[in-house]
Input
Amino acid sequence: MHVYPITLIFIILLVLLPDIYLFFRFMHNRINKSTKILHWIISAYFLITSCAILFNINHIISPTTHYKMIMFVCVLGMVYLTKLAFCTFDLVFFLSGKKNRKIQYAGYGAAVIAFLTVFYAINFGRFNFHKEEVTVEIEGLPDSFDGYRILQLSDLHLGSFTKSQDRLRPVFEEMEAQHPDIMVFTGDMVNCFATECNGWNELFDMLHCKDTKLAILGNHDYGTYYEWEDEDYKSMNEIAIRQKIRDFGFKLLLNSNHLITRGNDTIAIIGVENWGTSKHLENKADFAKAYKGTEPYKVKILLSHDPSTWERGVRDTSDVQLTLSGHTHGGQVGIDTPWFKISPSRLMIRYWDGLFESKGKQINVSRGLGCVGMPARLGISPSYTVITLKKKK
Output
């Protein structure tokens, strides 16, 4: 793994600057030598461990070890963001000539808020699952599919929920209680490794629907975010991930399609592999291959993990009326109100969360149930979506 200098510098400054400030501001001439030594031992522990993780992350294959590593990063964030918040206000107080002690008190409040916010996002926010319900009107939808219900789940990233299966049981029970006609998974079952799927069969066995369960692969399901020393191991891991998804009861659409028939009416579900644009993942999507055989059917629904695929090669060049995507996680952090919602994802991708319509076509982007990177959610709750198809009048 390439260690970016900016990341290393950021970690060093995040740890050192608050500890240096606190030492000279409050400890230098006020505490005994033993306490000073303890202060720097703790600081050195966080700094050395953080750098060690950064340089050795590419050698960590075990999901359990990876999860412990992520939780250490969470603790680091809680401790040092709290310190940083306090130091910022206290520095303003100090530079003002100590004339307004309310600024210092505000620093104490900001420190408490920072700690509680990160603590909530890690321990509660990422488990605050919600159901989103949307109605999609499709022109020419056959009468037998009017009211057809699709349950879309996405971006589980199972490795981020290591040892947390019991906390996901309620949302799996809730999804089972929806009794959808069809269930679709729109990619990113894992972070990188097939072993992340171990121990999840019981929960996935709970999920049933009237017709079938379909799935596609996301960018993380190819194991490309790990620099494999042996290409054979990489291929074996990718094959194992696909088999695990099938073991969970899903039919995997690899640039292929599936027809749903009710009486004399048929709709086509098309699934493409991930359309990658980064150096980590080549473009594996073959829309022409996936589309083949669906020409006679007027209503087509596309499963494509990355929503940017919709603009790049689906909306304007095909007759697919509805696309279902994931990938963005809604940014994991943001503000979501009945009147507006905003997130860092909105700055990077136009179609980032929810249902959008453009040029007579529609796309629903799921924010997913899981997390990538830091296992935390704040303001953007994890969710699955129940989509009801209606005939456009």
Remarks:
- The chain has a mean pLDDT of 89.
- The two ends are 54 Å apart (CA to CA).
- Residues 63-95 form the longest helix (33 residues).
